[in-house]
Amino acid sequence: METEGKKGIVIAEDHTILREGLKSLLAASVDLVIVGEAADGREAIRRCRELKPDLLLLDLSMPRLGGLDAIGEVRREAPTTKILVLTVHKTEEYVLASLRAGAAGYILKDATHQELLGAIRTVLAGKRYLSPDIADKVIDGYLQGRKHDAPASPWERLTPREREVLKLVAEGSKNREIADFLCISLKTVEKHRDSLMKKLDLHSAAALTAYAIEKGLVGP
Description:
Elements: E1 2-3, E2 6-12, H1 16-27, E3 32-38, H2 41-51, E4 55-58, H3 67-77, E5 82-87, H4 92-101, E6 105-108, H5 113-124, E7 129-130, H6 132-143, H7 146-149, H8 154-157, H9 160-170, H10 175-182, H11 186-200, H12 205-214
């Protein structure tokens, strides 16, 4: 989606002050234009489906639907939209999960304005971008054999729906509320919760909540 020759960007970030800051930073760019914004994962998907932006600048830790799960949905709903993850998460696990889901780039929130612009333009040009610190972690992991030899972590074994249920549990929602929100049956929610507990070896709502906070699905 180009507007008067500029590349259209949707910003998905749940913190209003950060979202406004990103808009201000990018507003002065002669080749970029903000065409939409979203405060949660589901809204990000809807915006991309409607607007077909050239690029989605996506935070990973958002309400309703986390960024990792939103990546796959955006790739299906708006396949021409490139996705650049902008996050605080520095672990190799998050980087690889984002790239596997379909992100074209991964940049940290402590990046400079110039690095962010460079990352955006690199991804828009059809190339991949990783923050230097992140690239070092990925290369180290590859050289140490983790990339191919390590078994899938419990987090990686969770389905997108299980992650969604986990997020809602961590936000304090009861089973009936989760069922209503996701438009699924109460029995299906119970099955997802049982599966979560078995896969993660966590057996209480408090333990699931702590895990969700650790993974960045919800704030502490």
